[in-house]
Design a protein that fits this description.
By secondary structure, the chain is an alpha+beta fold. Helices cover 41% and strands 13% of the residues. The mean pLDDT is 96. The structure holds iron/sulfur cluster.
């Protein structure tokens, strides 16, 4: 830790870069903000609440892009590899944190910074080179127009260091496409259009080399905690499945349970499932395993399609690829899914949003709303693998129908009309991941109230899906959703990977989370102390949204989830009728101490959490 910084795990320093005047400054991290908001999403929300005026244009010069680490990053705690990229989102209109794994977060800390705040807009393409305490803005004219992989290759050669870690945008980010992502080495900070914010600043890449370390108050204590957590990882079957098969480990079981979203969520059982299971993937395309910094789970798969029309090399495919381009578009060819994944990285577009936009367009086509003329001659029916790949290219280039789909399902449905909004599978503009909530009330209210909309990192259906709680009982589901929110936001602030869910959750903040945080920082938090931090973080993010004008009315589900019961399979009949959702929202707001009418935090709640400054803005 920096000399004089009070807590372990922190460097105690932030790096601020102004792209307009080329100013580069280093400033101390506020100790009270570290203690109250920890890092990652929580700390970034506090910083952006302070520094962004309300209602700014997310693609204008006033928006800021914050890369924030957390205290456990760069230590021997397993699955503590992640980092966050945060901004006001051009896609949802509120605070957004896009989390990614790999090595970039730890590397930023090794370079001597807990976080990086990027402000202003450059007049010409630039990239940022952070080499420990030497920080430079360099011309990126030669990189503009290049895809993320080529950009990384050029930078590694140019800087002369194969070991640097790089975050970069692709063509979509340069064009400020609404769901452009940032590729961080091989991992995507995919969601919420965070790449468009970087593109609006004409910042092509951030390259980092760090040679320092992270100091903790008691190395023996940290060592023992890391050993215990690694033992838990090694002996928890649900986590071990990740090591063997990666995130698609449960595809077959999900299909059997009737919760594999299919054909743009018209049903949740996919007849082509057996060709896209984790086992099929292992057999046909997976060539090896990869891990993030200090993670013993090793969940990332490295896949190769060596030749043919779907020739590709990717890290994955992850479950969201299998769901999005597989069952949601009814494509049952694993090689095609690899190619689809590769194309999204190439153009720098969010995989989930891209897939769901195409699934929505396929449904429009099958319903006769789109003709072949509208689809640029493509027979865009469900299951047309080549048509799907062509459409990804069109979205990447914003060409023909791709220009409409690049706006996202909410905007596209508003433009097309004709009731297509009913099957735009989004909340707050963000398309849904492949984790259903139609049979799961806590997950439903969690998605509806989620600050990012359709994100499975604000809520998880695991507790209801696995029978840990009775999914059919409505009572208590507001409280359950809130406590799941809490373990998710606290780990997104420490920057622990959510894939180790059985260890960090799944019902509430676990002892392991608290032990990891205390071991690194030297704090002696108990459950109530940790929960209060998480509650403060969640309320801070809600205040940001409220200041932007969000209210209870914005806490919605896709109309399909409310009005169309699952038509077949074990979950047949499941849906969340509108009245049920409103009842769940009441339950959730009441548990949180939020105003039932507006859905926003009350003055009393904000005061209890030390957020009185926000009460002036929103109460
Ligand atoms: S579980 Fe997988 S994604 Fe998460 S930190 Fe470990 S290797 Fe990375």
């Amino acid at each position: 830790m920096a000399k004089g910084f009070k807590y372990g795990g922190y460097i105690g320093q932030l790096l601020r870069v102004n792209l307009h005047n080329k100013g580069i400054t280093k400033e101390p991290l506020k100790e009270d903000w570290a203690r109250d908001f920890v890092g990652g999403a929580g700390l970034s929300a506090r910083i952006l609440y302070e520094e962004l005026p309300p209602k700014i244009d997310p693609l204008g010069p006033e928006n800021k892009l914050v890369m924030m680490t957390g205290p456990v990053n760069g230590t021997m705690i397993p699955a503590a590899s992640r980092s966050s990229l945060c901004a006001k989102s051009p896609y949802t209109g509120s605070f957004f944190h896009s989390i990614f794994g790999g090595f970039l977060g730890p590397e930023l800390k090794f370079a001597g910074y807990d976080g990086l705040i990027i402000e202003g807009q450059s007049n010409s393409p630039a990239y940022l080179w952070i080499d420990d305490d030497k920080v430079e803005l360099r011309d990126a004219g030669h990189l503009w127009g290049k895809d993320p992989f080529e950009t990384q290759e050029i930078l590694r050669k140019e800087i002369g260091d194969e070991e640097i870690h790089i975050a970069t945008i692709g063509l979509a980010g340069e064009e400020k496409a609404p769901y452009a992502m940032i590729l961080c080495d091989i991992r995507a900070a995919g969601r919420g259009g965070i790449g468009a914010v970087m593109g609006s600043k004409k910042l092509k890449a951030i390259a980092i080399r760090g040679t320092g370390g992270v100091t903790v108050p008691n190395i023996l204590r940290l060592h023992n905690t890391a050993i215990r957590l690694n033992e838990l990882i090694a002996t928890t079957p649900a986590v071990q499945g990740l090591s063997e098969y990666g995130t698609p480990r449960n595809v077959a079981a999900m299909n059997e349970a009737g919760i594999l979203p299919t054909r743009n969520w018209q049903t949740e059982t996919f007849e082509g499932m057996k060709n896209i299971t984790a086992e099929a993937m292992r057999e046909k395309v997976v060539k090896g395993d990869r891990a993030c910094f200090a993670c013993s789970i090793n969940c990332t798969k490295y896949s190769v399609v060596p030749k043919g029309p779907y020739q590709s090399i990717i890290n994955g495919p992850d479950y969201e690829t299998i769901y999005g381009f597989g069952s949601a578009c009814a494509v049952d060819n694993i090689e095609v899914l690899c190619k689809a994944d590769e194309l999204c990285d190439y153009y720098g577009i969010d995989l989930i949003s891209t897939a769901l936009c195409i699934a929505w367009a396929m449904e429009c086509y099958e319903k006769g709303i789109f003709t072949r003329e509208d689809t640029d001659g493509i027979d865009l029916k469900f299951g047309n693998a080549d048509g799907m790949l062509q459409m990804i290219e069109k979205i990447g280039k914003r060409e023909g129908l791709g220009a409409l789909l690049a706006k996202g399902t909410r905007a596209a449905a508003q433009i097309i009309g004709r009731d297509t909004y009913r099957f735009a599978i989004q909340n707050k503009g963000l398309e849904f991941p492949g984790h259903t909530c139609r049979p799961f009330p806590a997950a439903a209210v969690g998605y509806a109230t989620g600050p990012r909309g359709g994100s499975h990192h604000d809520i998880r259906p695991t507790a209801e899906k696995t029978g840990l709680v009775d999914r059919k009982i409505l009572e208590g589901k507001g409280a359950l959703a809130a406590e799941i929110n809490h373990w998710l936001i606290l780990t997104d602030s420490m920057l622990l990977c959510h894939l180790a869910e059985p260890i960090w959750g799944p019902l509430k903040i676990s002892d392991s989370v608290i032990e990891a945080l205390n071991s690194v920082t030297g704090w002696e938090l108990d459950y109530e102390g940790a929960r209060k931090i998480a509650e403060r973080q969640r309320n801070m993010i809600r205040c940001f949204a409220a200041r932007e004008g969000f209210t209870r009315e914005d806490d919605q589900l896709p109309i399909r989830f409310m009005e169309e019961p699952v038509p077949e399979g074990p979950m047949k009949g499941s849906h969340i009728p509108r009245e049920t959702l409103e009842r769940l929202k009441d339950d959730y707001y009441a548990y949180r101490g939020w105003d039932l009418k507006t859905g926003n935090p009350t003055k009393a709640k904000l005061s209890e959490l030390g957020l009185d400054f926000a009460a002036e803005d929103i109460c």
